[in-house]
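Proteins fold reproducibly. Next comes an illustrative record:
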Amino acid sequence: MEKDAKIYVAGHRGMVGSALCRKLEKEGFSNLITRTSDTLDLRSQEAVAEFFLKEKPDYVFLAAAKVGGIVANNTYRAEFLYDNLQIQNNIIHQSYLNRVKKLMFLGSSCIYPKMAPQPLKEEYLLTGPLEETNEPYAIAKIAGIKMCDAYRAQYGCNYISVMPTNLYGYNDNYHPQNSHVLPALIRRFHEAKEQNLPDVTIWGTGSPKREFLFADDLAEACYYLMQNYNEEGLVNVGTGEDISIKDLALLVKKIIDYQGEIKFDTSKPDGTPRKLMDVTKLHSKGWKHTIQLEEGIGLAYNDFLKKNVLATQ
């Protein structure tokens, strides 16, 4: 990408989009285009067409999406399917009509079949049924991957797709009901420490394993792939390492310096036993993550503390 190129980052206020903007600015790209959802409704075909016609971006990072945890995914099934299809259809099609040089589509590890073998390889896509609770979101993301490949095949568009593992970091969502597991643990251990609670209870047995990538590492990978990867299909982005929920809880407890006990409510479900990405393809392209989990949780916790201070002022 040329340093003076016009780059549109869709979803710049989210955790991923804001990390992408930080990375691009650090690399000397100053011609970034962004829009908030109240000034540009990405679900509107007409509004997105007008925006592209006016701005004519050279490159696009498609990080905008309707996202949420398991409850939101399962409750708002129609919205998750409709909104995400509209957003990506509009941006991908207008990128083609307005001759965008290259587009990156960001998906999620939930695109893979529920019972796919571990670790998850790119070729496992569409080899079995999806996890029922987030099927609408996953179907939208699969459609986005296939749309990028179809526009490449029919029109010669250089559109690539990346599938990140579980993310955490600056600008994360710490909402008590609809945050993901790592930010939820950070909030709960912090509140337990503040309130001097004797214990923190965690759902399930603590045995399921999950993989976590710091969002700024994802931004590094996206930047690297945007410069060096031009192929059909998708690329997994992760660490290739996972940790049990029990060990993750112990790590968060240590970082926050909470002195109480951890209890496990085994009457509650565990969820999928393991979700690890195979990152052989990514490593073969020359990129590997640099922020280890303990360091990353420390950075995320400091960000959480700052936001908490601002919220109470």
About this structure: The first strand starts at residue 7 and ends at 10. The longest helix spans residues 77-97.
